[in-house]
Amino acid sequence: MSKEPKHKKGYTWTHHFDEWWDRREAGFKAKIFCFGILGILLGAWGGIYFGYNRFERKELIQNFVETKNRKIQESDKSIRRIGYKTPHSPAFQNAWSSEVRPGTED
Length: 106
Known about the structure:
The protein is mainly α. The protein has two helices and no strands.
């Protein structure tokens, strides 16, 4: 009994692959199948693992920035409460300028 052609257009690359695949033994096909499943599982595990690490890193950086900003705000509040002059206050605006201020002439 003759084999019916699977591809009616002639010899295409799918036809060559199909013929090549039919000539392989069952052990080879099982190995390919196992490596495919293993690759899919490793890819899924890697995606979850590295995605979680990226999420944790973003959260850690965000917490660090929030803590830093909170410390800066708390230090500004304590400076204002104690009464120190900050470099942004008007008393420090011309502290290092070379112009003579009234009342300081020799």
